[in-house]
Amino acid sequence: YILEECQNLNIPVILGVSEGAAKYMGGFNTITGMVKGLLKDLNITIPVCIHIDHGSSFEVCKKAIDAGFTSVMIDASRYELKENIKITKEVVDYAHERGVSVEAEVGHIGGTEDNHTSQETNATLEDCLTLYNSTKIDSIAPALGSVHGFYKGEPNLDFATMKIINDNLPIPLVLHGGTGIPNEKIEKAIKNGISKININTDLQ
Ligand code: 13P
Hints:
The chain is built from 8 helices and 10 strands. By secondary structure, it is an alpha/beta fold. The strands form 3 sheets. The chain has a 5-stranded parallel β-sheet with strand order 1-2-3-4-7. α4 packs parallel to α5 and α5 runs parallel beside α6. It starts with a helix and ends in a 7-residue tail after the last strand.
């Protein structure tokens, strides 16, 4: 349905799958095989990106790339920045040689995803710059108050820092935890530099 609607609107689309959901669906090769089949059977001609969301290690991202994913997120945000950079750089080196783009996370997005619950820690401009300059990632997901899953009350997004990060980095910003963010805050996030919005819980 999403592919058909994007084809009708003639807009490119990113199909994202989390590591946990990929396992549930049978694995990375099953997913890329299925998408390739859909593109053919539905005569889809718009650009379609197949993206792995929150890849937890270099090995997982490598597996996804080898199976034909065209974009990966390496989420090493649970480690100290130095270790996050080391793992992210390894993924970037492997991915860029193969024409695959890489998203990474700074700070920590809270909430629950893939049965994993975590505390949030907001990103800083300094950490975003250090991660970008050390790895040359293609997009960045700075944790700025959004959480995965449903919100308890209103989401409290740090738009000021979002703008500062966007003004200082030459790559697109990603907003995770799209479910439950009211439209006016989504619009404000876009105005402050967000280019990709992840929505999972709502779709499920
Ligand atoms: P939600 O499940 O809150 O929409 O978050 C999706 C997400 O950020 C996936 O990375």
